[in-house]
């Protein structure tokens, strides 16, 4: 749509401008994001309000000079996102049963058993810490 180069009056100019604005506003609503796979120069991301969560993928946007990422399940305030940390888990005690004895004794078997229980407890504590920090997959 172009402006009439010889408008009859000022009202016609305003009507033409309003039609162009309406057409551009409708066009902007139809434009969707384009996936970016590589860049040859820095990007300028204009400020925007937070988008709704997408069904898949993620939105990258800037609000108030800060970069945000919005995915279906998370909303990050920085790039890269803060990586959640799980609680610290003390390492399992070393299994120090030595070499197998020439004859098996109750104390040697107990050392093996105690080492395995310690390892099992450490694994369980690690799984609980990961679950509590929402770092478990699936």
| Low-pLDDT residue intervals, each spanning 5 or more residues | none
Percent range for helical residues?
25-40%
- Total DSSP E strands: 3
**Lateral arrangement of strands in the main beta sheet:** 1-2-3
Count of the domains: 3
Biggest β-sheet: count, sense, barrel? 3 strands, antiparallel
What shape does the CA trace take?
A: rod-shaped
Q: How much is the radius of gyration in Å?
A: 32 Å
Structural class: alpha+beta
What string, H for helix and E for strand, traces the elements in order?
HEEEH
Number of helical segments? 2
Classify the beta-strand content into a percent band.
5-15%
Average predicted confidence as pLDDT? 78
Oligomer kind? single chain
Termini Cα gap:
53 Å
Can you offer a commentary on this structure?
- This protein is an alpha+beta fold and 138 residues long.
- It folds into three domains: 1-32; 43-83, no CATH class; 85-138, no CATH class.
- It is built from two helices and three strands, in the order αβββα.
- The protein has helices at residues 10-30, 106-132; strands spanning 58-63, 66-71, 75-76.
- A three-stranded antiparallel sheet has the order 1-2-3, with no helix packed on it.
- A hairpin with a 2-residue loop joins β1 (58-63) and β2 (66-71).
- The longest helix has 27 residues, at 106-132.
Protein traits:
2 helices; 3 strands; 10% strand; single chain; alpha+beta; 138 residues
């Amino acid at each position: 749509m172009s402006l009439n180069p010889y408008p009859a009056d000022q009202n016609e100019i305003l009507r033409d401008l309003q039609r162009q604005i309406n057409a551009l506003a409708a066009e902007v609503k139809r434009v969707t994001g384009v996936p970016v796979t590589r860049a040859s120069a820095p990007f300028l991301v204009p400020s925007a309000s937070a988008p709704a969560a997408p069904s898949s993928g993620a939105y990258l946007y800037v609000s108030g000079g800060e970069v945000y990422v919005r995915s279906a399940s998370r909303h990050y305030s920085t790039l890269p996102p803060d990586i959640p940390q799980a609680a610290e888990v003390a390492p399992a005690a070393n299994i120090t049963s030595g070499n197998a004895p020439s004859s098996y004794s109750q104390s040697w078997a107990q050392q093996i058993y105690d080492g395995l229980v310690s390892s099992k407890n450490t694994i369980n504590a690690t799984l609980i810490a990961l679950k509590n920090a929402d770092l478990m997959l699936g």
